[in-house]
Every structure is written in C-alpha cells, then in structure tokens.
Automatic annotation (TrEMBL):
This is RDD family protein. The chain crosses the membrane at residues 25-46, 66-90, 136-156. One of its GO terms (cellular component) is membrane. Residues 19-169 form the RDD domain. The keyword Transmembrane applies.
C-alpha cells in the first residue's frame, strides 16, 4: 500500500495511506450510479419514462429540467465534498477522502478547482436533451471513455492524483472508519461551565488546528507518542506557553479550547 508523507506547519511529517485504485473506482461508480438513478427517477416523474416526447413538450420543460435535474447533477460532487469534509457518498462508503497536501481539509478554493476539472471526466450533460434509453446508453459510454483518461492520469501520477487533484494540490487517502463530525476540527462542547485553559490557541491558523486533529487521530490509530510529543513541544514554543500535561491530553485540550472559543 502506497504511503505519502505530508509536511505540516510544525515541521512534522504525517503519513497518509493513498487510497487504492479499486476503492476510488468503486466510489466513482457508486456516485455515478446515484446520479443516473436520480436522472432516471426525475424523467419518470416528469414524463412517465423514456418514451418519445414531442419537441414542444421538451421545449416547455427545458427550464425546469435544467434547474431540477442538470444543476443538481452538475453540483453533486462539489456540494457533497464540501458538506462531508472531503467525501462524496461514494467516497464515504469506500472509506476514502480528499485532503490537502498540507495535511488538512481542503479549502473551498481547492474543492472548486477539483470540481471544475471534472468537466472531462463525466461531461456536463443537460437533462432535457436525453429522453430516450438509447441516448442515455450513449452518454454512459462516453463517460466511460473519459474515465479511461482519468485512470491513465492516476496511474502515471506520483501520488495517484487525477488532473483535478494535481491542479488543486489535493490527494485521496484512506480513512479507516466511516467519516463523522468527530473526524473534523469541530466538536460540540456540551459543558455549560467549560473552562478554557489555553486562550492562546486562537493564534493558530485553521491549518494548524487541522494538523493537531490529524496528529490526535493518528495517535489513537497507531499510538505514535513520539510524533504527538514533538507536535506538543512545537505548539508550546509557537504559543509561548508551558504545561506539564501529557502530550495527547494537551493537544486534545487545545482542540476543545479552540472549538469553545471559536463558537463564541
């Protein structure tokens, strides 16, 4: 299994397992199948199926088709990756996700770049132009042809990146468990009397906080106390604070303080 090392703002290299090709393929097929099912379902809702419909009917429904079929399909990958923090439904089911090459969650601009480069992977088609089974099959075949190009680019790139990843400076990696909100930097502080211990944490950037969260995740996955300790020392130097807390406890407290203060 391929592993990449990503440098963090604290000069600590974190290791991530690059997502295997078959996982990316199955994730792609799941997402594409969901889009096709959505498309077919909407056509049956509007027209009762894929029977021939008069040109006048097509023209009269053009605006509705674009707004309720084409646009949702066009925005699917962008919206899901932003809302699910680097995952589409297919990626979520296959336990893989997109991360930035700085080790944290991609920024909105990176998601946008990845999405724009999907134009050649599955063409932006407009629902109102397809109203026969034959045309739907042709569309699927065209998409499959473009998929071959994607496979070639992933195969020859150093980090198994597609063109969108190369442009956006992102990579697709494995995640061992189903991604939940606990895997992001955000957590709900339920204590009404919560006491902040390190208010200096707000001096850290979002990228720094993402790095701390990744280090915490990897500690519980691999019990890598050395990396945890190195990051703890580096953070204390940056924030000019001192503590006798264990490294993992210190980093978790920082993350909790950050979430509490950021929500105020």
């Amino acid at each position: 299994m391929s592993v990449i090392q990503i440098a963090t703002p604290f000069n600590i290299d974190l290791e991530f397992e690059i997502a295997e090709f078959h996982k990316r393929l199955f994730a792609y097929l799941i997402d594409f199948t969901l889009l096709i099912l959505f498309f077919v379902g909407m056509k049956f809702l509007y027209y009762g199926g894929f029977d021939e419909v008069s040109e006048n009917v097509l023209k009269s429904h053009m605006g509705v088709d674009i707004l309720t079929i084409s646009v949702p399909m066009l925005l699917y990958s962008l919206v899901t990756e932003v809302m699910l923090h680097g995952q589409t439904i297919g990626k979520k089911l296959m336990n893989i996700r997109v991360i930035s090459l700085n080790g944290g969650e991609p920024e909105l601009s990176q998601y946008l770049v990845r999405w724009m480069f999907k134009a050649y992977e599955w063409p932006f088609f407009f629902g109102y132009t397809i109203l026969t089974r034959g045309s739907l099959i042709v569309y699927i075949m065209i998409t499959g042809f473009f998929g071959i190009i994607v496979v070639i680019i992933i195969a020859i790139s150093k980090k198994n990146q597609r063109l969108g990843d190369l442009a956006a400076n992102t990579v697709v990696v494995n995640t061992k468990s189903v991604f939940t909100v606990e895997d992001t930097v955000f957590m709900e502080i339920q204590q009404s009397n919560y006491v902040v211990k390190f208010p200096e944490v707000l001096k850290l950037s979002d990228r720094d906080i993402n790095t701390i969260k990744n280090v915490i995740n990897m500690f519980y996955k691999n019990h890598n106390t050395e990396t945890c300790a190195r990051v703890s020392i580096k953070v204390q130097e940056v924030l000019k604070i001192q503590t006798d807390m264990y490294a993992i406890d210190f980093l978790e407290k920082l993350l909790a303080d950050y979430n509490y203060l950021a929500s105020k």
